[in-house]
Structures are given as C-alpha cells and as structure tokens.
Amino acid sequence: MNGRVLIVGAGQAGGRTAQALRRLGHAGPVMLVGDEALPPYERPPLSKEVLLGRAEPASLLLMQEAGWSELGVELRRSARAVAIERGARRVRLDDGSTLDYDHLVLATGARPRVFPGPVEPGAELLYLRTVDDALRLAPRLSPGQRVGIVGAGFIGLELAATARTLGAEVTLVEAAPRPLARLLPAAFAFEQIELHRARGVQVLLGHAVERIAPGRIRLADGGCIDVDTIVVGIGACANDELAAAAGLAVRDGIVVDAAGRSSDPAIHAVGDAARHVDAGAGLDHRLESWRNAEDGAQAAAASILGLPPPRPPVPWFWTDQYGRNIQIAGRPDDGHRCVVLDTPDDGPRLACYLDGSARLRGAIGIDCARELRRAMKLIERGEPVEDGALPVPRARALSEAVAT
Fold first, then answer.
1. Which of 13, 18, 90 is nearest to 266 (CA)?
2. Using an 8 Å Cβ cutoff, are 105 and 5 in contact?
3. Which end of the chain, N or C, is less packed with Cβ atoms under 10 Å?
C-alpha cells in the first residue's frame, strides 16, 4: 500500500487509475505522466458537444489541476516516456530524466489509424483524437462547407451527424459493403446509415478510397468527390510500442488479464492500449470506449493493492447522433434472435438479442437509458429470459424479428 506507482499516460484511463488508487487506500507516491498539455480529460464529447460549441475543453477535465495536488497525485504534463527499464524498474522520458516505480501502469491509449493510400502534395487530412484536433476541425464545419469523411465507424458517423447539424455538406465514404461490422448487427447498422441519408448525408458504401488529392477524394472506381475538408476516421492503433520495446507481450495492444496485469507482474495496462485476454472466460479483445477506461482503471488499482477484483462489467458503449442517444450493451449479434420493444412515432426503442437458450446476450437502446440498464442486469445474470420479462420502453408495443 506504500509502493511508488507511476502511471504513463494522463488520459481518462490513467487519471481514473490514480483516483482509484487513492480511493482504495494507497498511501504511497503516485505520479501521472502525460504528453498532452492538458490535465486528464474525457474524449467522447470531442466529436459531439465540443464541435457543436456546446462545451468548452475545460469542461472535459476529470478534475481541475489543483485537485490532483490535493489528491496527492504528482501530475507531469507535456512529458513523453521513451523507454521502460524493467530490470531497474524505471522509465526514461524524452528529456533524458528517469522515474522509478514499484508498480507501473501503462495508459498510453491509441492513435488514429493513418490513411494507408497515396496522399498528394498539398492535401490536408484531419483526424480527431485530442482537444487540439477538435479545435482545428471545428471552424471547418460551418454552413456550406463541403466535408468528406473517410470511414463509417462510430467516429465517422458522429462527425457526420455533427457536421450536418452545423449546416455543412457531408459525404461519408466507407470501403466495406456494410458499416460497423464488428459492433452492430447488420439491420441496425444499415438503419443508422438510412438515418444519415435522411438528414442529407451522401453515404457511399463499398467505395474504397484510392488516393487523396488537395480538395479531392479519388475513389478506386474512378469517381471523385470535391471537398473543402477531409477527415479520416478509419479506426485506431494501440500505442503499444513502448511496451513492445520493453519485451512485454503485445498483440494490437498490451496483453493483460482481466485485472490488467501484463506479462510483467510489476506492470499493468489500462484503457485503449490494453488487450484483455482470458482463455477460460473466452476473453480476447481491445476495447476503445469510455466504459472500458473507467472499469479497467478500477480493476488495475484493486490488483495493485492486492484487493479482490471488481466483477467484470457488461460491455457498454454509447453514441449521440442528431439528438438521439444510442446505447449498446453486451454483444448483440446477427446470429441471435432479436426482439424489438418500441414505441410509436419513432420514439424510444430497445432491441434485445437472445441466444438459443433464451439468455439475453446483447441490447441496443435508443433514447431509453433506464430500460437499457435493466437489460444490462439481465445480461449479467446470464439466465433464460421470457420475452414478456424484457424491459419495455414506456410499456408499449412488442414485435419480433429473426435476425438474418
């Protein structure tokens, strides 16, 4: 309880780990090191409230800078770790200084995947990951501006919704024939695409981008899209190079168990950089989400202090588009039977996905946070559920469809 804990990565996951350590009773030194100028902050609002002008960057902070000092956490900003010396239990920074640790937590996060094709001289590509990225992009989403977005994942869809809300003309290009293949059942994913088309977004599915020129996106089929701004949202890569160079097990992320322990017992990893692997529990994934950052921080802090681990949470993710809140819990899959509980006039709706044993495996809710939370409890129990026992948004209609 008195060892020195060094946290490399001062984002949401790193900040929450420091807070959890103090809350759970750690009395030793805690240092939080990050390469951004801001104290730890949450990223989800960047593509929504910040770009829409409804939130200032300062509102994203986990706590004000003075709060870290009051918590007894030493915060070192604008500092980058360049090497881990595991034998000596120390980390070397880019200014040549070193920091000792008894326990090291890697919260190094992820970075946007770079467009892999040719980019002609003079072409400018924007990405969205940091506050600085959001501030650079915001002025380009004004009415009449032509915005081309490469990638129809959640970040691309959120950016499209925000840009259209602000009056920009938007073209969304996706190489795959369907969006969100790893996250959503096909019917629901295509429904989101139709929502965007209804709001005036030009959506091109199954169109690979061949190259990017100044003010122009060139497609592999010979087509061209003229734009004023190009934003790339084709996924993210884990920042696991520091761990790999130190000899830790990595595979598109730092390999850890359910408690965040890496292949070195003195090192944990949390957040977007961590790949959770547990063969017994059928666990092998790297999650980029607000909830994963929160839960991973709590689990790692408990593990460092030798405390019982918290119960593994049900995976949960949310997105806001055109004023509608969409929440996804568990692992909804096309192979599951889908029961839709909805309300008239495109109101709140909950889609429940049950396996062959009638156990609820996943749920997708639109504007029904309370019912989604009830569904998460049913997923957590893992017991068979009668259709009539599923949470109904505002007690309205029940219809059923078998996923294809």
1. 90
2. yes
3. C
Do 183 and 331 touch, CB atoms closer than 8 A? Answer: no
**Domain layout of the chain by residue ranges:** 5-111+236-304, 114-232, 323-402
The arithmetic mean of pLDDT across residues 369-391, rounded, is 95
Distance CA 40, CA 312 (A): 24
Cα 361 from Cα 338, distance rounded (Å)? 10
Asked whether the predicted pLDDT for residue 394 surpasses 80, the reply is: no
- Phi and psi torsions of 113, nearest 5°: -70, 130
Closest by Cα among 276, 257, 260, 258 to 268? 260
- Tokens at residue 285, please? 């994934």
Q: Provide CB contacts within 8 A for 143, sequence distance 6+.
A: 166, 167, 168
Residue whose token pair is 């120390």: 90
| pLDDT interval class at 38 (50, 70, 90) | very high
CATH T-level fold of 5-111+236-304: FAD/NAD(P)-binding domain (3.50.50)
DSSP one-letter string for 212-254? EETTEEEETTS-EEE-SEEEE-S-EEE--HHHHHTT--BSSSE
For residue 44, count other CB atoms closer than 10 A to its CB.
19
Q: What is the mean pLDDT of residues 233-250?
A: 97
Q: Which residue has the tokens 């609820």?
A: 360
Task: Write the pLDDT tens digit of every residue in 339-366.
Answer: 999 887 788 999 999 999 999 999 999 9
